[in-house]
Design a protein that fits this description.
442 residues; alpha/beta; MutS, DNA mismatch repair protein, domain I; Nucleotidyltransferase, domain 5; MutS, DNA mismatch repair protein, Chain A, domain 3; 3 domains; six-stranded mixed beta sheet; two-stranded antiparallel sheet; mismatched DNA binding; ATP-dependent DNA damage sensor activity
């Protein structure tokens, strides 16, 4: 780390300046993950630059290009931010189960595109880079931006991307007030915050999904109008597709785009408090039970208290909690006919269930974070990583140690899947056929 970067390192990482005529400091290569994580947690972006050429390769290149370069080539191999954090071999250490010691909370990189004026339409895309899972969707929102606030409350953002000069004052107020501590970055429209058309062209690149649209993830296929000769984005999903393009552009800038997209994990985001169907949506008329299926009502704590849904549990007016009439006629107590709390969890108190729970607990304690491990192993095995990514040319000092970490992660993942299979077999022995169990079969 040199010059101003060295100052940041000394002030935030407790490093010491090295001797010389200019400011510089450093740490061992093997400690990169620990120190980079500290800088990212403090809001910095960390670019990892590696030497991608040996002296002999420099000499050969000079002869071939008839050049006279004196310094070996160096390239940026990764840019880590709060929203693009990954857990590769450089981000851990040699401790067994290190991935469980890291923060397990999902933090998302967001891109938000807004359209309309009176009734705002949002197209959103957010990704958890630790597991490579994308969410993409759209919704209409009211003037108070309640649906947008609910989205951020349910899926905590680590970084937000938005179009420069195309954000309403009310949306910016949400960013600055409700998400004041979240990193925000304005992207140039069309160039960085891609249009829906350019996003489809980008996804058709061979290193992503290729030009065979039938092989694309189902969620993305639903957003494409394939009635024309050249597939185009459905007009209803243009804002969502544009948000996806912004996320891909940013991941590409951080050199983790192929790692994430090749996981092919795309899910449709469905708001929990829909304010109504979009104008272009055409739904068949529903009656009876179908009319109410899938509808939800989101109630906050104050509403639950005023409607007396649950017994009051104290707060500012603690005397309410001792009001026997209020507690007696709360909806929860009216429908709760269990004599004791144990009756509410009778299945857990059965003798057979106790034995299963003890065995399941012991088994689950040994299961690692399989989602993150699978993403790591997927990244190791990518052909793109081995042939085109700058990391494939990087001259590392601790290559043997990193290879051991890769083997350890693979073995740990295989052992984890074996324990999950054992748990499933144990469940079948205790409770019989589970073919109709959604939780177990899926």
């Amino acid at each position: 780390m040199y010059h101003m970067d060295a100052v940041i390192g000394v002030e935030n990482l407790n490093l010491n300046y090295m001797r010389g005529g200019f400011a510089h400091c450093g740490f061992p290569e093997v400690a990169y993950g620990r120190f980079a994580d500290q800088l990212v947690n403090r809001g910095f972006k960390v670019a990892r630059v590696e030497q991608t050429e040996t002296p002999s390769q420099l000499e050969s290149r000079n002869k071939a290009e008839k050049a006279n370069d004196k310094v070996v080539r160096r390239e940026v191999c990764n840019i880590a931010t709060s929203g693009t954090r990954t857990y590769g071999v450089l981000d851990g250490n040699d401790q067994q189960g290190i991935i469980e010691l890291m923060d397990s909370t999902a933090r998302y990189l967001y891109a938000v595109a807004e359209r309309g004026s009176d009734r705002m339409e949002y197209g959103v895309c957010f990704v958890d880079t630790t597991v490579g899972r994308f969410y993409i969707g759209r919704f209409l929102d009211s003037g108070t931006r309640s649906a947008l606030r609910t989205l951020f409350a349910h899926h905590q953002p680590a970084q937000i991307l938005y179009e420069r000069g195309r954000v309403s004052a009310s949306t910016m107020a949400v960013y600055n007030n409700a998400l004041s501590a979240v990193a925000k970055e304005a992207l140039i429209p069309k160039k960085e915050f891609l249009t829906a058309e350019n996003t489809l062209k980008l996804l058709a690149n061979e290193k992503y999904f290729g030009g065979t649209y039938e092989k694309w993830p189902i969620v993305l296929l639903k957003m494409i109008d394939r009635s024309s000769l050249v597939p185009k984005c459905d007009p209803a999903y243009e804002a969502s597709m544009s948000a996806l393009g912004a996320v891909i552009w940013y991941l590409k800038r951080c050199l983790v785009d192929v790692d994430m997209i090749s996981m092919r994990q795309f899910e449709l985001y469905k708001p929990v408090d829909l304010t109504g169907p979009l104008p272009e949506e055409k739904e068949e008329p529903k009656t009876g039970e179908a009319l109410w299926r899938g509808r939800r009502l989101v109630l906050d704590g104050l509403t639950l208290k005023h409607l007396n849904i649950v017994p009051p549990v104290g707060g500012i007016n603690k005397f309410v909690a001792r009001d026997p009439v209020t507690a007696k006629y709360a909806l929860f107590n009216v429908i709760n006919k269990c004599i004791t709390p144990a009756d509410a969890i009778q299945w857990l108190t059965e003798a057979g269930s106790k034995k299963f729970i003890q065995r399941a607990t012991e088994c689950l304690r040994k299961v690692p974070d399989l989602e993150r491990l699978v993403q790591k192993i997927h990244t190791f095995g990518l052909k793109y990583r081995a042939e085109e990514h700058p990391d494939s040319r990087a001259q590392m000092f601790e290559t043997m140690r990193y290879n051991k970490r890769k083997i350890r992660d693979l073995v740990q993942a295989l052992e984890g899947f074996e324990r999950v299979l054992e748990l499933r077999s144990e469940f079948m022995r205790n409770f019989g056929n589970i073919s109709r169990s959604v939780c177990i079969s899926n």
